[in-house]
Amino acid sequence: MGARPLLPRRPLLALLRGLLLGTNHSAIGVATSATGLPGTWTDHGKVFSSETTDTWNAIDPAVVRADGRLWMSFGSYWSGIRMVELDPATGKAVEDARVHHLATRPDEPYAVEGPEIVKHGRYYYLFASTTPAARV
Question: Are 108 and 101 in contact (CB under 8 A)?
């Protein structure tokens, strides 16, 4: 019997990103799959995006649930880590989502990348890289 993927009890969720290199014109999308196998993914469209007129870059997404609400942190080189609330029914940003600014560096480059927020006890902790990915 060959190896086979573990079957989850609920659909798998993937947050995807697309970007135009050298700009902050980026988007985060969502897709789901019951098995994670190739060809089984369903694209549900855009979760959130950034335009060249924004001061943030919609890449490096991470999701956390807090007090019954769903939040997505994201961000990169442009101005640090941001966060928006997601609609738990769709996985997309709530209508007219407020963009919260969580972290940045004090001097140029303001890069803070790859956020992950975890809860431990009563507190939430933000983990991120302060080294620009292009220089690693």
Answer: no
Close Cβ partners of 75 (under 8 Å, ≥ 6 residues apart): 56, 57, 59, 60, 81, 82, 102, 112, 113, 115, 128
CA 128-89-112 angle, to 5 degrees, is 10
**pTM score:** 0.80
Q: What is the rounded CA–CA span in Å between residue 45 and residue 55? A: 23
- Other CB atoms within a 10 A radius of the CB of residue 27 amount to 18
Tokens of 51: 């335009």
Q: What are 112's two structure tokens?
A: 């803070």
pLDDT tens digit sequence for 88-134: 888 889 999 999 999 988 887 777 888 999 999 999 999 998 865 54
Q: Collect all residues with Cβ–Cβ distance below 8 Å to 122 and sequence separation of at least 6.
A: none
Residues 114, 103: contact at Cβ < 8 Å? no
